[in-house]
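Hi R.,

Here are the chain sequences for the assembly we discussed:
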Amino acid sequence: MRLVCARAYASIANLGHGFDVFAMAVNVACDEVTLIRGGRGLSLRVEGEGARGVPTRPRRNTVGVALARLLSDHPSRTGLRARILKGRGSGGLGSSAASAAAAVVAANRLLGLGLSRAALVPYAAHGETASAGAAHADNVAAAIFGGFVIAEKADPTRVTRLAPPAGLRFALAIPRLELTTRRARQALPRCIPLADHAQGCARAGAIVAAIARGDVRALGRAVEGSFAERARAHLVPGFAAACESARRAGAAGASLSGAGPAVMAVVDASHADARAVATAMCEAFRRAGVTAEARVGRPAPGARVIEAR
Ligand code: HSE
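And here is the predicted structure of the full complex:
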């Protein structure tokens, strides 16, 4: 085999209280990574509508970092060229994770490694150090497995997957703000009060129970008010107003999407129109002086090989 291309979707990490643990793959954007045997070492090319600002030096790119770790454990007889086709991702939608997930899934097939999806997660998570400064596994686990995941970054990484409710939609407002994951992580407290921990555990349990029962309204109520959201809200002017507008337009609840600046609202498709919710959130941002783009999505499948020859 000479060439393998894999596709992986965007994801909403944390879902409020599952900081660095919960994530949901969403079909609002996807990345494709094509790996071609040839040349020496590892080279990267980045293209597509989301390519602007994505580093092309392998040591600074999530694909380069993930593949370097994979190749140090599973050396290749030949060099590899990676062509990364970036979709219309944005801050808070796990774009760097989608690329890393697609890359390790493609490499697994091209090199005939036969690794399980769970075994690929730590490699892709290591790739996240290039963009976030920390190897968090939530986004990459969702991008690799699809649907809703609980990713436990133990050794070995454990991933529990639950099928998302059928009527679940996400309304997203993507403010035009520069906010790197690294910066958003620096805003987090090193320690949290016991009361915050207890509330976080209660809400995280409620999130899992709501997904297991298929109760979108309960899911929406449970995602709000996490310690990470409180610590980061000031980085996203208009955040509180956008969440309030989402609820008034019929959303069950709203929170930051991952590290932000994207804001996500949980919508029960049988109760409200996700497009109207997203538009209402963008309108709230506009009133706060921030331009934002509205998008809607639903849970997406996991990464898969789309071409191999
Ligand atoms: N769990 C990570 C964070 C997600 O909140 O920093 C980053 O996309």
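The mean pLDDT is 95. The chain has eleven helices and eleven strands.

Let me know if anything looks off.

Best,
T.
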